């Protein structure tokens, strides 16, 4: 009788070894769609697997399933998971692992802690944060799987530590946030098996088969298309699961902007220039009127308003000027904003005009084709030097600003060898929405320049 039971267990285990999908449904009733099944098979069959994906396609769920699959079919075995920060280790992948264990149709029979699943001393899974490089040492096993979650943000030191373990399998998974670095390099290496999961893949599968609760919908994709534009970096990364098209022709690096998100300055708001900057849009159309407030190099807000009249814009600026005791109130007076100065004067609101037309002569006209190019180059140089503080911007406005800043491309020098960036018309031709937030930010730099010209004058232009 005992021999028959052992034989039955062996047969079941062999079925699990034959197919990770069969193994999955033995433990879970949750639907696995075809890209998730592809990921399961890839880790079974390849030493290195890299997966880049859009949002809400079930990548954390399948990463947790891969962890449990590995522990099930390999004995003894060890799994190490990591991510850019401790919160991401604990709150994303290990929450999925905990759900798997607690909801399993077959009792798992292991001790579960927040980031530790232990069967035996030589058979376990453990989550490590990336600021503890030394903790990667000593984890050796004939069967060792390392899962690098949110892989775009993991430091080169951690990648090096992972390789030094000589693991049996590595899974690197996440949104393709940066088109440089170790995660990006995986997708040009012949060593790695590569998988891309687009939100469209997920939606099409659900429409053909059945909806899976919690996964991306076509409505969300269309919302993102309308919000960002389907040629934008945001759409490429978070919907298509592709690395952003940023290269030598882009003026401002995503890394520089992301660094400003963590750069908390100690500027004194009472002592620094307080600047309002406005990119004016028409009352009709898709573009937004964006009003930004900064003091010194600390950007506090960038508020977008659709379909507001010129008098509404005037009233908002008048209110903010009085409330914040603004020292410089800047707006683009070319084109749509041409009449704003007249109605601001009626309310006795002081202002400075920025002439952003493509033909407007730069202050440094030997180096720059026009004024707009000059001030975007100043913005780029200050981002590169780590001078801006974007910590106070709300998350949505920060993402919009980053997306728009990092899409602006440099054109070839003009006939006099002067630097120039693409026009708004050039961007429209690439199906990129008008950079309303970026322009408002750039004009804030113009306002700062007018008050602190000596500080800016000494900059070496990029």
Biggest sheet: strand arrangement: 3-4-5-2-6-7-1-8
CATH class of the largest domain: Alpha Beta
Query: What would you report as the Rg, rounded to the nearest angstrom?
Result: 27 Å
The rounded distance between the terminal residues' Cα atoms is 79 Å
**% residues in beta strands:** 15-25%
Number of strands: 15
At the fold tier of CATH, the topology name of the largest domain is Rossmann fold
List the uncertain runs.
Answer: 454-462
SS field, number of helical segments: 18
Largest sheet, strands/sense/barrel: 8 strands, mixed
Q: Work out the count of structural domains.
A: 2
Category by helix and strand content? alpha/beta
Overall pLDDT level? 90
Using the alpha-carbon principal axes, give the shape.
Answer: elongated
Determine the fraction of residues in helical runs and give it as a percent range.
40-55%
